[in-house]
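Subgroup meeting minutes
Present: P.N., E.W., G.H.
Scribe: E.W.

1. P.N. recapped why we're keeping a running log of single-chain structure predictions: easier to compare across weeks, and new members can see raw inputs and outputs side by side.
2. G.H. added today's entry (479 aa).
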Amino acid sequence: MVVVWDCVIMLLSQELFRLALKDAQLIHCFRLLQVVFFLLGWLFFMKQLFRDYEVHQRMVQILFSITFALSCTMFELIIFEILGILEPASRFLHWKLGLYLILFVLIVALPIYVSYSVLTSVPFVRRKWLLPLTMTSWMVFIYFFWKTGDPFPILSAKHGIFTIEQAISRVGVIGVTVMAILSGFGAVNAPYCYMTIFMRPVGGVHIAQMERKLMHTMEMIVAKKRRLCLLEKELAHSAFTRGSESQAGLFQRLWGSVSFSSNTLKDQISTLNVEIAPLEELSRYLFLEVVELRNMKDRLEYSKTWQGQYFNVIGHFFSVYCMWKIFICTVNIVFDRVGKVDPVTRGIEIAVKYMGFQLDVRFWSQHISFLLVGVIAVTSIRGLLITLTKFFYMISSSKSSNLIVLLLAQIMGMYFVSSVLLMRMNMPHEYRSIITEVLGDLQFNFYHRWFDVMFLISALVSIAFLWLAHKQTPITMEP
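Output recorded in log:
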């Protein structure tokens, strides 16, 4: 009997050792993936955001890559939860660790470095005042960040002040707002960009006329600036001559004529500056018009290809989706409705109940949820990176590029934390528990209602804006 018991203990020990070894190997793979995510963020920073700029602050690149890696890790942990990879205790530990790290980056590291970067660019701020002013700016940020949650019912009353739920709830409000605004604009802008019905016909003759106007304006600016340089040179020469004459005590009789000539030159310079300013503004307007016309013509030519026709069909699909989403958001807001069952399980239950299919609801909901979460994760990351790239090139310059990247990293981190918070509704109940346990006792229904409200506002404002822009765009037919 003792021998049998020893054999059982030995077998159990071997099995536990094997499981521990397997879990350790999976943890090593998990950490390797985090390194891969960091390198992907680093590569995106160098090849997309800063391909036209020189990197002056390496810390900006490190913070952006860390934020990207931690954001992707949260999606990875959701997939691990569905597939049952790693032990539950290990997954919970990595959830907590990842969440604490990304909150530290979003609430402490990024705001402090943004404040430091802004203050170092101010010329009259002395070096000894950098640290006190940076910490003061961070405290101001913390105050307004904390006040963000006051108007919203985001927490249960039992939570204390210094809890992780307090931070997550406020990050969630900001992130859900950004996500809803981007989603609402994207749902409206995608059909507008890809559907041929919204494309204006543009003639090559009209583009040539606009280019001639632009070239004529540029020639006028060059001629006036050349005249301005000559007058400034003449003014400087007359001032030098006047100084030499006054020192020598000669030609005092000509003082009045020299002074009159100097005033005349100044008046001419002032007049030229007044004339050049509106011409430069006109040249910028004409340049943007030429670029817009060329883009419209390229879109028309692209729409005639097979790929363009495919995107035209996708545009119709997005139009239907946009109308359906606006309708559903309106219903949810009016009737205060929040889904209780995830869409995958609900769809399978309908197929089993009303269509007579014999399916294992639990089995298929797990695998389809895995695919759905994977698609949502990939499309969210891809869509946000594309949006960040466009926004960066729209507003950045060689001086402001580092600061803008830090702000985009802040938005990216909050966006992905909110994505995990909202993605909880797309998962079956057995997989929601870990997210609920990690994120804390938040008012999840509020975030879904808030998303619906902001999505509806963003979509309606985008429709109005694009309608006005489309209405004011002149039709230019090819003669």
